[in-house]
Design a protein that fits this description.
By secondary structure, the protein is an alpha+beta fold. It contains 4 helices and 4 strands.
């Protein structure tokens, strides 16, 4: 039973951290406030609302279709990850790297899905830049998804490399 529950607890922890950080930003920083400097010349805390996906993609798509597409895609991804994690707990033996990566992706996807359903946008707040070059703003959920995807790629590389 623990093998089946643990991945969902990790995902729930990611979701909870994402909710806490987004709620703090929404409560303390308005959309029009000046950035809060964390590391001068490199990192700020801001409050932005992203109606699209990563890097603002699909932000200009007509609103009802954008929501249906993004919510539907998120639910499909969450269903697939849940099925893989449940099957893994039932006897198949994926690596710990694969399971942890899936947990991070699932928790992050849940966090952004919650925002999208409740607010219609996703709250982003980490702003990274160097000089005039800005990376698109992101949040805790985006970070978990990115790290999780990196772990999935690393697991794929390791298992393929190990077979050869």
């Amino acid at each position: 039973m623990g093998q089946r529950v643990l991945p969902f607890l990790v995902s729930a922890a990611v979701f909870l951290l994402d909710r806490i950080t987004k709620n703090l930003v929404r409560a303390d920083i308005s959309l029009w406030d000046a950035p809060v400097v964390v590391i001068p010349g490199f990192c700020n805390i801001v409050h932005t609302e992203n109606p699209g996906i990563a890097f603002g993609l699909l932000a200009n798509l007509v609103n009802p279709w954008r929501q249906v597409l993004l919510v539907g895609f998120s639910i499909a991804v969450l269903a697939i990850i849940s099925a893989v994690l449940l099957r893994a707990g039932a006897g198949s033996s994926p690596t710990g790297l694969l399971r942890f990566g899936l947990c991070l992706v699932m928790g992050g996807a849940l966090g952004n899905l919650f925002d999208r359903i409740v607010h219609g946008t996703v709250t982003d707040f980490v702003q990274v830049y160097a000089g005039q070059h800005y990376f698109p703003d992101f949040n805790m959920a985006d970070s978990a998804i990115t790290i999780g995807a990196g772990l999935l790629l690393l697991d794929l590389w390791k298992t393929r490399h190990h077979r050869e």
